[in-house]
């Protein structure tokens, strides 16, 4: 009986630590939680299915500016962040085809890719 209680306690501790790890990741490392501040540029794909919107974000008086780019699916209206770079002040956006965009020299498939400067 004592062995069963120990394994249940161990499982509860493991679940607790996994939930804490997920919470730290989602709070500090998930770019989907970042909100755009000042809209800089908006550019639609050649087939008008997607639109990339670039934002300039300020971290306050002691940090530099960062650029956040979000892609909007014009058919469904769903928006998700695909590009986060710091320090950065400007954007150079160009569409290569209907679903591939380059942002400051980084090519991204807007259907699945993301770029975060913290994860090179």
Can you characterise this structure?
The chain is α+β, with helices and mostly antiparallel strands and 120 residues long. It folds into 2 domains: 1-33; 35-116, no CATH class. 22% of the residues lie in helices and 38% in strands. It contains 1 helix and 8 strands. It has one helix at residues 2-28; strands at residues 38-44, 50-58, 65-73, 79-85, 93-95, 100-103, 106-109, 115-116. The protein has a 5-stranded mixed sheet with strand order 1-2-3-4-8, with no helix packed on it. A 3-stranded antiparallel sheet has the order 5-6-7, with no helix packed on it. A hairpin with a 4-residue loop joins strand 5 (93-95) and strand 6. The protein starts with a helix and ends with a strand. The mean pLDDT is 87.
Question: What are its keywords?
Answer:
alpha+beta, 120 residues, five-stranded mixed β-sheet, elongated, 2 domains
Layout of secondary structure:
Layout: H1 2-28, E1 38-44, E2 50-58, E3 65-73, E4 79-85, E5 93-95, E6 100-103, E7 106-109, E8 115-116
Parallel strand pairs: 4-8
Antiparallel strand pairs: 1-2, 2-3, 3-4, 5-6, 6-7
């Amino acid at each position: 009986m004592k062995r069963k209680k120990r394994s249940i306690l161990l499982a509860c501790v493991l679940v607790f630590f996994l939930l804490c790890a997920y919470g730290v990741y989602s709070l500090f490392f998930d770019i989907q939680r970042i909100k755009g501040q000042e809209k800089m540029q908006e550019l639609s794909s050649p087939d008008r299915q997607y639109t990339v919107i670039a934002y300039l974000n300020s971290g306050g008086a002691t940090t530099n500016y960062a650029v956040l780019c979000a892609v909007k699916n014009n058919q469904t209206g769903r928006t998700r962040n695909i590009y986060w770079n710091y320090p950065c002040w400007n954007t150079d956006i160009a569409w290569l085809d209907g679903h591939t965009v380059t942002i400051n020299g980084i090519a991204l498939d807007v259907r699945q890719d993301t770029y975060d400067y913290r994860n090179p």
